[in-house]
Specification:
Distance between the termini: 39 Å
Number of helices: 2
Helix content: 10-25%
Protein name: Penicillin-binding protein
Organism: hydrothermal vent metagenome
Mean pLDDT: 88
Structural class: mainly beta
Low-confidence stretches: none
Largest sheet: 5 strands, antiparallel
Number of domains: 2
Order of helices and strands: EEHEEHEEE
Strand order of the largest sheet: 3-4-5-6-7
Oligomer: single chain
Strand content: 35-45%
C-alpha cells in the first residue's frame, strides 16, 4: 500500500491579486479518506437485493470545479429466479462517463 495517493488538481490553483499562484493543499484527512470505499447490500438473502457504494478517491479526483457531479456513486440490484441470477450495476465516473454492468449467473448444480 502507498499512503500518499492524493494528487493536487491543477484546476484548483488559486491566484491572488499580486499574481502569486498557490497550488491545492491536500490535508492528512483528505488523503486518509481517499483510501476508503463504502458499500452496502440490502435484502442479501432474498430473491431481490439492492446494492449501493461510494468511492471517495474517485469522487474527489473526477469532480468538476464548483459543480456536484455524483462521481464515485454506484448502485445496483440482483434478481434471483430458480437457477439464474441477473445482476445490474451503475457506476458514475464523470458527467461524460458512466458504466453499466450486467451479469448472468447460472447454478449448474
Amino acid at each position: 500500500q502507498q499512503w500518499d495517493i492524493a494528487v493536487a488538481n491543477p484546476s484548483n490553483t488559486k491566484t491572488d491579486i499580486n499574481g502569486n499562484v498557490t497550488d491545492e493543499q491536500i490535508s492528512f484527512l483528505d488523503n486518509a479518506i481517499r483510501h476508503f470505499t463504502l458499500g452496502a447490500e440490502l435484502f442479501s438473502e432474498g430473491a431481490f437485493n439492492l446494492r449501493f457504494g461510494y468511492n471517495f478517491r474517485r469522487a474527489k479526483e473526477l469532480q468538476l470545479i464548483d459543480k456536484r457531479t455524483f462521481s464515485g456513486f454506484t448502485a445496483g440490484f440482483g434478481l434471483k429466479m430458480n437457477k439464474f441470477k441477473f445482476n445490474y450495476a451503475f457506476s458514475k465516473y464523470h458527467p461524460a462517463s458512466n458504466a453499466n454492468t450486467f451479469s448472468l449467473q447460472i447454478n449448474l448444480n
